[in-house]
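User: Please predict structures.

Assistant: First:
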Amino acid sequence: MNESANHLITPLSPEFLVNPLPTYAYLRANQPVSPVALPDGGRAWLVTRYDDVRKGLSDPRLSNDQTRLPVSTPFDALPAAVRPAIVGDVQNLDPPDHTRIRRLLAPAFSAQAAERLRPRLVALAGELIDSFGERPQVDLVAEYAAPFAGRSLAEICGIPADQHEHFQSLANAVVTAIHGGTPDALVTPALELYEYIETLCAERETHTGEDLLSVLVREHKDGQLSRPELTSTIFGLLNAGQEGTANLIGNGLHLLLTHPAELARLQADPQLLPSAVEEFARYTAPLDLPIFRSSEKDTQFAGTAVPAHEPIMFSLLSAGHDESRFDKPAQLDIGRADNHHLAFGRGTHFCPGAPLARVQVQVAIGELLARTGSALRLAVAADQIVPRTSVVTRAVAALPCLIS
């Protein structure tokens, strides 16, 4: 690769997303703030060094407001009347609105709340493992990671048990359309999920409880949330909240099954599980390229001039593999010390669900390893595990495994 080729990098293309690490390594060494091409022909700026990503994520000059950017998104084909009620979730907002809504969500996703949920999460993991029955082979993405993340979030939100499957099918359809379809393909599943959310909110208005949806509906009735803010916040939770966790569980299991020495190390010392989860997040960055940021004024990153209003992308995956920050970053080390990765973001928009996600992944992987022991192994060769190429997330599409 030479410098002129950098202008042709398309970081949202399937070809790039299959394995971006070699390109990231080149950019960190040669052009840490690089102009890149977007699928719609527009230009963005890709930031790849750890220190620059860390500073950028915390930079108060940068906005997360996607409506300010002249770029296409998967939600462009939605009817204008409902678009704000779907895409205006907390991670797309700037202070003070972001601060106000985040404060309402904080109690449900605190570390203390996550620990209180641990016993129920352990029971849920057991139920899913029991559902494998006597089958010798299972797909640990479709049959374990995804339903564990979806059902645990559904319970937090107070979605009735007999609706869990329906909720997951709606959310999965939206995720599939975002990652592999066109804006037109997203319209139907997004509107169906939005209508389901409206139904849930209407039910909470007459039959309230202590679940998260009830709390948010009461805040709406008290004037703390507008109706579009209410529905878009729930829409974001039901999609990002389950997908990110499912991806980290699947990625973590994939890493362990393709690094047998680290798997044996964890099985011998389960106390390493919390640090292992942090290493999985650093190594794979389930959310590599988060929401576009932009500046009202021309700005500088690492000596590179970035024009006002042009999209800026911060690679969390590249930051996690920066040789200047992490010792032997290409090596998986579940006991890695000083692992201050950026996989959950940083600053004002640090992932509000990170404490819960950490506990969910610890429980899901810990319980599976405890129940299956040395019997757990891949059912196919490692090079047959296919990554799911996505404009947002990093994950394996399926993880067929033998459990007996």
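Second:
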Amino acid sequence: MRKTLVAIVGFTIVTLSSCNSVPGASPPGNRKTTASQSVVSGEQIRLGAAYSISQSCTSNGVPTTKVIKAPAHGRVEFKRERVNPPATGNFEKCSARKIESLVAYYTAASGYSGKDTILVRVLYDDGHYVENTINITVIE
């Protein structure tokens, strides 16, 4: 089975999914995750990166994303970037390699302080998805 790692990387690393796909095998189940971040009003933070990586440390392609619930007090944007996967689990050996990914950034509205929420669905080529709820605390 081919294993993949998907992560959202912010202040801490939170594993969002493990994808196992082999021709003829059933795709892994869909998952839901929750993470929290804090940001200063008017500033941008990196929420995380979505990618798919093989056990040989090569990219399985960049997943696509769909914003299910946009933030009410800021904006989210996605940029293609090369990132190092986290040095954990079966993919520890891959941490020195840069993998093509889709990185999410959030910018809080200037002058706003309070709570905001983003819900993003990350879609993979094998048909499964991960829904990520990101709870954001905006401070002055």
